[in-house]
Specification:
single chain, 387 residues, seven-stranded mixed β-sheet, four-stranded mixed β-sheet, 14 helices, binds 4'-deoxy-4'-aminopyridoxal-5'-phosphate
């Protein structure tokens, strides 16, 4: 390992140096360097984060004397305020599940669950493209792990058949909508695979599907009527739900086990109750936001039709639509040009995505109009001919 400065210099030469952007937002727009651009890079998929009417309604519902802006301790000490139970009951009811457990973030959930529920008699089989937070959870676990090729179920089935008798428990780990490619796992096939073995647990991260998919916005598993077949159904509140935190839908037994073993739950100050109040407020609204979900799907389809043919093997089926440009310099040039044209898009580079697949990650939200999508497609076509 060289000096810090030489490594930073190397990152810079590769076009992979990251800097924290000075950025603000105004509703649908991102404001940076004095420019106001349509925000196509946030995870606010339902376009609710800056919704004035919702904020006003929420503030009117509050009694300032009862608001708490900190939990001041872990949930296992004095931080487990009644709103935690109310929110977890509401989630269990929505999912028609035994129970739910709320965490401070998706990162806490994914980096904490697998180390808690596995040991050296476990095997983790995780999709090659799972999120960094899951990768870190795998790294902290004592289990053996194998990453299977992205959505390659023949390989996964082979790995299960070869290994099932040698381990107490096998955990299959995937995202439902993948965060960088915008494609989906085959939940039906994973559930079918699980059915054939008594020791398989299915772990599905629905961070990018929660709020967006399914009749009530509960995710792809709800859409496919599979919520009860998944052992660890992880969702986050920091994206479409326009709040903060995460939760897992699981059995009572697993919840109790996590409360006793999960270090990222036990050894951290609980989220402030005011944030959970807002989450609960949003959870009362999101199941009824059908028209936002329908509009998002309509504009996403339009952009997918334009971009999927340019992306080789990467086939988005969601509101996350990449435009793959190859090397990092190209992605940076493209993003800068589109920003000048009023579209706030960012280059996504290694190590977030594999080498040679630097891209613009376009994440749409329900506030974007049909006309804006047409303007974006036009700008992307011009870019393609010029680059
Ligand atoms: N899972 C996935 C698939 C994600 O994309 C992210 C965040 N981008 C997380 C988990 C982490 O969630 P949080 O931001 O709540 O920590």
């Amino acid at each position: 390992m060289g000096s810090f400065s030489s490594q930073l210099e190397q990152l810079s030469q590769q076009g992979n140096l990251r800097r924290l952007p000075e950025i603000d937002s105004d509703g649908r727009y991102a404001i940076r360097g004095g420019m106001k651009m349509l925000n196509l890079s946030s995870n606010d998929y339902l376009g609710l984060a800056d919704n004035r009417a919702l904020k006003e309604e929420f503030f009117h519902s509050l009694n300032p004397h009862e608001c708490r802006f900190s939990s001041t301790s872990s949930r296992l000490l004095t931080g487990n305020f009644p709103i935690y139970t109310r929110l977890e009951n509401q989630l269990a009811e929505l999912y028609d599940a035994e129970c739910a457990l709320v965490f401070n973030s998706g990162y806490h959930a994914n980096s904490g669950i697998l180390p808690a529920v596995t040991d050296n008699r476990s095997l983790i089989l995780a999709d090659k493209l799972v999120h960094a937070s899951i990768v870190d959870g795998i790294g902290l676990s004592k289990a053996r792990n194998i990453r299977y090729r992205h959505n390659h179920y023949e390989q996964l089935e082979r790995l299960v058949a070869e290994n099932s008798s040698q381990y107490d428990k096998i955990f299959i780990v995937t995202e439902s909508i993948f965060s960088m490619d915008g494609d989906e796992c085959d939940l039906q096939r994973l559930v079918a695979l699980k059915k054939n073995f008594h020791n398989i647990y299915l772990y599905v991260d629905e961070a990018h599907a929660f709020g967006v998919r399914g009749p009530q916005g509960l995710g792809c598993a709800e859409e496919q009527k599979l919520t009860r077949k998944i052992d660890f159904l992880v969702c986050t509140f920091g994206k479409a739900a326009a709040s903060v935190g995460a939760f897992v839908i699981c059995s009572n037994e697993i919840k109790e086990y996590l409360v006793n073993k999960m270090r990222t739950l036990i050894f951290t100050t609980a989220l402030p109750p005011i944030n959970l109040e807002w989450t609960q407020f949003m959870l009362h609204k999101i199941p009824f936001m059908h028209s936002r979900r329908e509009h998002l799907e309509k504009i996403s389809k339009k952009l997918r039709n334009a971009l999927n043919p340019l992306n080789g093997d990467i086939l988005s089926s969601s509101h996350i639509i990449p435009y793959v440009l190859g090397n990092s310099e190209r992605a940076i040039t493209a993003a800068e040009r589109l920003q000048r044209e009023g579209f706030y898009l960012l280059p996504v580079r290694p190590p977030t995505v594999p080498q040679g697949s630097s891209r613009l990650r376009i994440s749409l939200n329900a506030e974007i109009t049909d006309t804006e999508i047409e303007q974006l497609i036009h700008a992307l076509h011009n870019l393609q001919t010029d680059l």
